[in-house]
Design a protein that fits this description.
Helix content: 25-40%
Strand content: 25-35%
Oligomer: single chain
Distance between the termini: 65 Å
Strand order of the largest sheet: 1-2-4-3
Number of helices: 3
Number of domains: 2
Structural class: alpha+beta
Largest sheet: 4 strands, antiparallel
Radius of gyration: 28 Å
């Protein structure tokens, strides 16, 4: 039992010299884990879903802040809080951290919402 525990301790503390059989075994085990583990292990680190297309955000300075115009297709309608969160999700990658003062819907001739104007400051 002493020889086996000494060998395992050598693997854990990486005590074998480069080019030895035990060193090659450790490197092989590491490479096998890197290339074979994704097939059998679920790490639950899925990438965050991105919007299907990049949305355009128009930014204009106004007073002490900015007016951001966001396409209506980039946000999902909801409560005031949900709308602010959705608008921040679209604006912040472009402008950095923003505090929304207010927002209004921009409508076309048929009263369909085509965009949102967002007044905000950094």
């Amino acid at each position: 039992m002493g020889k086996i525990s000494q060998t395992i301790r050598g693997y854990i503390w990486w005590m074998y010299p480069r080019g030895s059989v035990h060193y090659d075994i450790m490197v092989t085990l590491i490479l096998a884990f890197i290339f074979l583990a994704p097939l059998g292990i679920n790490f639950r680190d899925k990438p965050q879903p991105r919007p299907p297309r990049q949305t355009e955000v128009l930014v204009k300075p106004e007073g002490n802040g900015f007016v951001y115009t966001v396409d209506a297709s980039a946000v999902s309608p909801g409560s005031d809080y949900q709308m602010r969160e959705e608008l921040l999700r679209v604006i912040e990658p472009v402008a950095g951290e923003v505090h929304i003062d207010r927002f209004d819907a921009v409508r076309d001739d048929k009263h369909k919402i085509i965009a949102y104007k967002v007044w905000g400051r950094r």
